């Protein structure tokens, strides 16, 4: 027996993919693309994490994400501050999308998912394992490579690389 499963069989709800995305990497794009095949709509929620030294402003990150995801008709991005569970309630999201690269990510993400569940019991956290080609990529590693003059072209989408080159022409 074969099944005729098509794109119309996506989960009908809205999922949020929160993060600082500074910069938006190939790993982030991989997770967004895969989540867009599962959920009816995905909103990449760009947070301003004041505890991190930012390469780009939140507005610049949002613009880059929009450029990188323009091929995905059910993906948008927004700027966000505050508790993600409050924003999820406000917009009617059914899930949070989180990416897992390695076992080390799981401990942090596991605790975060439980905290979010306590705050919003009806909001599910969906974990997506990144493609193995992107498992070692993180925004902080990209920033570190960039700070030491290394080649980041295989770690970030073309639109992000262009923005980085415009910001620091020596990159």
In short:
With 171 residues, the protein is of the alpha/beta class. 31% of the residues are buried.
Index terms:
single chain, 171 residues, alpha/beta, Rossmann fold, 5 strands, globular, disordered N terminus
Written account of the structure:
With 171 residues, the protein is of the alpha/beta class. The protein has a single domain, classed as Rossmann fold (3-Layer(aba) Sandwich). It has six helices and five strands. The protein has a five-stranded parallel beta sheet with strand order 3-2-1-4-5, sandwiched between helices. Strand 1, helix 1 and strand 2 form a beta-alpha-beta unit. The radius of gyration is 16 Å and the shape is globular. It starts with 10 loop residues before the first strand and ends with a helix. The N terminus is likely disordered.
Based on secondary structure, the structural category is: alpha/beta
The largest sheet has its strands arranged as 3-2-1-4-5
Distance, first to last CA = 54 Å
Chain-averaged pLDDT? 90
Please provide the ordered H/E string of secondary-structure elements: EHEHEHEHEHH
Shape: globular
**Low-confidence runs (pLDDT<50, min 5 residues)?**
1-5
Total DSSP helices:
6
Largest sheet: 5 strands, parallel
Q: Quick one: CATH superfamily?
A: HUPs
Provide the CATH top-level class: Alpha Beta
Radius of gyration: 16 Å
Total tally of structural domains: 1
Named at the architecture level, the CATH assignment is: 3-Layer(aba) Sandwich
The percent range for strand residues is 15-25%
**Helical residue percent?**
25-40%
In total, the number of strands is 5
Q: Tell me which oligomeric state these chains represent.
A: single chain
Using the coordinates shown, work out and report the CATH topology: Rossmann fold
């Amino acid at each position: 027996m074969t099944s005729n499963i098509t794109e119309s069989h996506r989960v009908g709800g809205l999922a949020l993919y929160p993060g600082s995305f500074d910069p938006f990497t190939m790993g982030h794009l991989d997770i967004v693309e895969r989540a867009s095949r599962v959920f009816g709509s995905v909103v990449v929620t760009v947070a301003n994490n004041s505890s991190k030294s930012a390469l780009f402003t939140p507005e610049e990150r949002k613009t880059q994400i929009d450029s990188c995801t323009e091929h995905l008709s059910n993906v948008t991005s927004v700027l966000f501050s505050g508790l993600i569970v409050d924003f999820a309630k406000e917009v009617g999201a059914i899930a949070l999308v989180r990416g897992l690269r390695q076992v080390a990510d799981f401990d942090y993400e596991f605790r975060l998912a439980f905290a979010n569940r306590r705050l919003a019991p009806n909001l599910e956290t969906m974990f997506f394992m990144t493609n193995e080609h992107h498992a070692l990529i993180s925004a902080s590693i990209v920033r570190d490579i960039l700070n030491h003059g290394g080649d980041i072209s295989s770690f970030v989408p073309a639109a992000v690389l262009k923005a980085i080159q415009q910001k620091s022409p020596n990159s």
